[in-house]
Amino acid sequence: MKEKKLKPRLHVPDYCEVETVKDEGGKTIWPAPADAMERARAFIRACAQSGKPTLLVPDKDADGLSSGVILHRTLTALGLPTDLISTHIVTKGSSIHDSTERDLMSTTYNPSYIIVLDQGSRAAPRVIDNSSTKSLILDHHLSDSFPEDALVVSACHYPPVATTSLLTYLTCLPLHPSPTTFTESCAYLACIGTHGDLGNTLKWLPPFPDLTPTLKQHTKKAINEARLDRAPSLHLPERPSHPPSPSYQREPKSTPKSNATRTAPRNSPPTAASPCCASTPPPKFTP
């Protein structure tokens, strides 16, 4: 009886197993151009040192909210009081470019600094109609056009494309007075946001950072199950002290972006409205 020959297993490349973009010296450009990331760090430092009202505008999926928490914790670590940091969640069916949303952001919060996270982008007027407001956009969705006068850091042209939470984490890491403390309080957020967008089979190969200690501490299972409609440990940054805008009313599902490059389903937003900005993460998630 002839033995059947086993067919070789088909190798399915991991998300990270792609050709990277390199600079003239042959160095990999990742997750975004170094000069753009340095400008973003200077923006964040100036924002924290200004002592002025700051508005975070994250998308309401795992990647966007994780990015918002990372930014919130970075700003507070750099000295910006929490009562000067507000968060605006775009109303379902709208975008940050809609006149209604722009008016809400301007009149409700009147920010001196505004940071937009994971919202996708297109050519548009200023994020809000206030010439004195400084704007930063961190994103990974495919676009070559952005709002006027905004500082932009985009990962979209630098494969393997980092999620916005991972881009935000790597941008903020050098800013923290204690990198070890920052890693302990924010690395798990980068994992949640990345798995939320790219799925739970991601192998975290280079150039992605080695977050093995984080994945072991919290376990991959817990991170993968930390969906925003189930996990109490991840919520939006604190609401402003004044009455929130109508956009804070949560909807059961988020609206996909037309220029999204996501490979995994989007998650629904949290149903609880408790603060997220504890100084350290919980030892385990309890979905």
Automatic annotation (TrEMBL):
Domain (DDH) ranges: 56-194
Protein name: DDH domain-containing protein
Ranges of biased composition (kind: Basic and acidic residues): 228-241
Annotated InterPro entries: DDH_dom, DHH_sf, SSDNA_exonuclease_RecJ
Region (Disordered): 228-287
Composition bias, Low complexity: 269-279
Comp. bias intervals (Polar residues): 255-266
PANTHER family to which the protein is assigned, alphabetical: SINGLE-STRANDED-DNA-SPECIFIC EXONUCLEASE RECJ (PTHR30255)
An annotated Gene Ontology molecular function: exonuclease activity
